[in-house]
Amino acid sequence: MTEKKAAPRGIALLLASLSALGPFSIDTYLPSFHEIAEKLGASQLEVQQTLSAYLLAFAVMTLWHGAIADRFGRRRVILAALALFGIASAGCTVATSIEQLWFWRAMQGVTAGAGIVISRAIVRDLFDGAEAQRLMAQITMMFALAPAVAPLIGGWLQTFFGWRSVFAFLVLLTAGLGLACWKLLPETLPPEKRQSLKPSYLGRTYWKVLSSGRFLLACVAVSANFLGFFIYVLSAPVFLMTHLGVPETGFLWLFGPAMCGMVLGSWLSSRLAGKRSLERTIGLGYGLMLGAATINVGLNLTLPPGLPWSVMPILLYTTGMSLTMPCLTILALDPFPEQRGLAASCQTFFQSSSNSLGAALIAPALWGSTLTLALGMAGLLLLGGFAALAHRRSGLLPR
Q1: pTM recorded for the entire structure
Q2: What 3-state DSSP class applies to 127?
Q3: CA neighbours within 13 Å on the CB side: how many for 208?
Q4: Which among 64, 71, 108 is positioned nearest to 89, based on CA atoms?
Q5: First and final C-alpha spacing in the chain
Q6: Are 77 and 181 in contact (CB under 8 A)?
Q7: What letter does residue 347 receive in the DSSP assignment?
Q8: Rounded average pLDDT per 10-residue block, the chain, 399 residues
Q9: Rounded to an integer, what distance in angstroms lies between the CA atom of residue 356 and that of residue 172?
Q10: Which among 108, 192, 325, 328 is placed 20 to 30 Å from 380, CA to CA?
Q11: Half-sphere exposure of 199 (CA within 13 A, CB side)
């Protein structure tokens, strides 16, 4: 067995920051939707499609980030992606029409996924087993701050400087992260372990990964669990500002409980690594999510929309979601030790495609009321639960 390298100091924070860049660039501009529509002469649906364009491009390109990183190394691809993301963010800053914003948001999506894909591959380059679960959980814990902090920053930038300042802030943030990676990010894939980009090799390898039942069931579970929460993120302007009467600077009402739940769930996953089997940890997470979804539907059937009861079940749900996510992610990547980057790409593609579908179709269909959002959460949880159960019953989940 190949000896693993010692994890560089601060690697969890750096990888979490890289992983969070994509979600951060989703959530930061949510409070600006109304002004973007007004200033660019667009409808709310057209502004919503800037999010769909981003997520679709994100999904398509994540299928390739890992394969490219398996060929050229982790560090070089990360640095190039950050540079291109900064250029795309600058393009968003100076956009003068909704069509231009669609284009530059799509360009952001093309490069934003590199961080999350390659970070997962770096974790598996460095560690196996319980140590990999701990590092993945630590990354998720810090990554959880992004969805909570992003709309708060975006809300204040929107209030004081307008919507363009949000994208200017992303340019500065990307420059700082690029400098940190230049100085601190090591190369974790030695030249002798790099893979080919020949079409024949890629075709065989993609087929091997995407036809694996073990891989697909884990991906469905992760994606459906996350989408049960993400529909609230995608619906945040309507859910908070229309249904709950929250101002542009009050997005913490949603993202605060979500952040606390994600941090708590990731911390629990880290603490349970090596002490409790993956099967039992995943089961505990689903128990928490099921309780949250049941409470959410019950509250929406008996009470009118309001604070805090319309948002508090999200804390319990994201706790369970984050408890299961590191375990299911590891299970998805483990069958492919020689192609971890490509497998991480396929997994992220699967999840981001689900998110894109959620942005384009599911969230708009559900955001008409808080009850339909609660029912959507419950339905997506059931889909994820059935996938995890099928994974277990097929005898693929280690006990």
Answers
A1: 0.69
A2: coil
A3: 15
A4: 108
A5: 22
A6: no
A7: H
A8: 53 82 83 89 85 85 83 89 95 93 94 84 76 73 69 86 92 93 84 80 83 86 92 87 82 82 84 78 93 96 91 94 85 73 78 79 88 95 92 59
A9: 26
A10: 108
A11: 0
